Amino acid sequence: MSAQKEFEPLNICILTVSDTRNLETDTSGQKLQDLLLAAGHRLHDRKLVIDDIYQIRAALSNWIVEPQAQVVLITGGTGFAGRDSTVEAVTPLFDKTVVGFGELFRQVSFEEIGTSTIQSRATAGLANRTLIFCLPGSTGACTTAWEKIIKDQLDARHRPCNFVGQLRLAT
């Protein structure tokens, strides 16, 4: 009989991509912060950048190479508006894409927003053993993604599998 796994708090970064918000008006980033702290994880860093491919890549790349950062939650820039460029900025940095995340997110979102879910390009991947989730900018979508998918996948006790063992150990 194998020993029961224990909860391992992870170091999580939040990146908000927005041309209109600042840290005081960033309700989605704040919601993600509240949710990850309530789950027992640690907020490692939080930033806001404008919707610009190179600013997104710069902020994310710094966390990908930082040994302490284990997970990055990105909110905003995943739709089809002219300046939505999070997916284009982030996906070239992935070593592996978590294809099932976007599929599952749209499936669970369908229950809440119907066919409008097809306009979400939510995605996820691993880069240098850092798990990265790209979420829509709405607070509701961030809550849905955390509560119905991400929270369990960041919990070492979740069976039959989770991502904790795939992440680099925080030093």
Describe this structure in words.
Keywords: Molybdenum cofactor biosynthesis. The protein is an alpha/beta fold. The chain contains five helices and six strands, in the order βαβαβαβαββα. It has helices at 27-38, 53-65, 86-90, 99-113, 139-153, and strands at 11-17, 42-49, 71-75, 96-97, 123-127, 130-135. The longest helix has 15 residues, at 99-113.
Give the SSE layout.
Layout: E1 11-17, H1 27-38, E2 42-49, H2 53-65, E3 71-75, H3 86-90, E4 96-97, H4 99-113, E5 123-127, E6 130-135, H5 139-153
Parallel strand pairs: 1-2, 1-3, 3-6
Antiparallel strand pairs: 4-5, 5-6
Helix pairs in contact: 1-5, 4-5
Pfam family, one: MoCF_biosynth
Protein name: Molybdenum cofactor biosynthesis protein B
Family: Belongs to the MoaB/Mog family.
Features:
171 residues; globular; alpha/beta; 5 helices
How many separate domains make up the residues? 1
Work out the helix count. 5
Percent helix range: 25-40%
Distance between the termini: 30 Å
What's the shape? globular
Strand order of the largest sheet: 2-1-3-6-5-4
Number of strands: 6
Mean pLDDT metric: 94
Share in β-strands: 15-25%
CATH hierarchy: architecture: 3-Layer(aba) Sandwich
Low-confidence stretches: none
The CATH homologous superfamily is termed: MoaB/Mog-like domain
Structural class assignment = alpha/beta
Protein name: Molybdenum cofactor biosynthesis protein B
InterPro entries: MoaB, MoaB/Mog-like_dom_sf, MoaB/Mog_dom, MoaB_proteobac, MoCF_biosynth_CS
Function: May be involved in the biosynthesis of molybdopterin.
Pathway: Cofactor biosynthesis; molybdopterin biosynthesis
